[in-house]
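Appendix C: a fully annotated inverse folding record. The material below is reproduced so that readers can follow the format used throughout the book. The structure is listed first as tokens, followed by the designed sequence.
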């Protein structure tokens, strides 16, 4: 499915919205804020999705919820909403649409206990009738396309993703994304890309396969096993926001790309660090930026074949600093160190 084999495929559309390519960035709580989505989109991801946002919090104007839904300014603006009450899902969708959302994505896949304990996220797969009421309320509330992200089911005894997908499509959902695990698996074991094929076969709308996609080879295998129309990259993009774009371009052209040079990687993480600090304000931004710094250092050290002890020392120095100027100086020194290791 590479190069010429992909060139005949029609452009992917969500409703009447064109998508740049078939490799998307997954919504990840605490990760896919506007700065990270903006960078990943600029580097070529076909679609980026906001962090999951509680619909009632968005309606009530909670500042952090509004931040989670901020647009990137690049490509379609997708806001993912979670909730368990029809009123709040509908109102949340209206607020998101009024704020500029081009697509509303409904979360029925989050496995976190604090989400499922409130009967949201993947807990909704235990009650498909209620799940459909939420879907219908959301679709009725807005004019923009509504999409759905789910898991295979609650557990191995209740694999009901195909049924939910069929009913969601009949209600007007315009795209389905499936993480190839049950809720009870959380992130253990391997994602079952084969099992996603039953969902693809159940609907005519675009289907996206998600879970454990961290390379072009993973993406290609996931597409072949699932028959899906697109892939969604989650944890594989942490520390390497260029990955979805690289996979998307290779699927279209067949041309492989290496990881950016360490100098390019340094430029990306510096820009992301500064934007995260501006986005949240320095006090909160410093905390949010640390995870991105840690992932970026790990990828850079791997590219430079730096010893584990070298990475450990730089992680400690950079991740414990609360002085942005010192962080920038240390990042330069760290990446220079990694470059020396690569040249040795």
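Designed amino acids, in order:
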């Amino acid at each position: 499915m590479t190069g010429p084999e992909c060139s005949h495929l029609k452009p992917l559309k969500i409703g009447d919205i064109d998508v740049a390519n078939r490799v998307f960035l997954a919504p990840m709580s605490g990760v896919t804020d506007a700065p990270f989505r903006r960078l990943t989109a600029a580097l070529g991801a076909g679609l980026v999705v906001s962090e999951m946002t509680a619909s009632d919090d968005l309606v009530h104007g909670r500042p952090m919820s509004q931040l989670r839904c901020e647009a990137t300014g690049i490509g379609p603006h997708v806001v993912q909403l979670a909730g368990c009450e029809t009123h709040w899902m509908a109102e949340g969708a209206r607020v998101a649409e009024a704020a500029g959302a081009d697509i509303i994505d409904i979360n029925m896949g989050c496995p976190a206990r604090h989400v499922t304990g409130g009967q949201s996220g993947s807990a909704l797969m235990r009650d498909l009738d209620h799940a459909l009421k939420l879907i219908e309320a959301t679709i009725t509330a807005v004019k923009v396309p509504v999409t759905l992200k789910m898991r295979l089911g609650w557990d191995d005894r209740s694999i009901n993703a195909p049924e939910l997908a069929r009913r969601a499509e009949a209600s007007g959902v315009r795209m389905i994304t499936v993480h190839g695990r049950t809720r009870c698996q959380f992130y253990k074991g391997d994602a079952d890309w084969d099992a996603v094929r039953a969902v693809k076969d159940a609907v005519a709308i675009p289907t996206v396969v998600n879970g454990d996609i961290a390379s072009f080879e993973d993406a290609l295998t996931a597409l072949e096993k699932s028959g899906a129309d697109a892939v969604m990259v989650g944890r594989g993009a942490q520390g390497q926001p260029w990955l979805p774009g690289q996979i998307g371009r290779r699927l279209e052209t067949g041309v492989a790309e290496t990881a950016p040079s360490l100098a390019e990687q340094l430029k990306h993480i510096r820009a992301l660090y500064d934007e995260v600090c501006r986005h949240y304000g320095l006090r909160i931004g410093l905390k949010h930026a640390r995870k991105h710094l840690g992932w970026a250092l790990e990828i850079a050290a791997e590219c430079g074949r730096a010893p584990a002890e070298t990475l450990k020392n730089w992680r400690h120095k950079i991740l414990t600093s609360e002085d942005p100027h010192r962080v920038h100086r240390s990042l330069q020194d760290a990446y220079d160190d990694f470059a020396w290791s690569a040249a040795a």
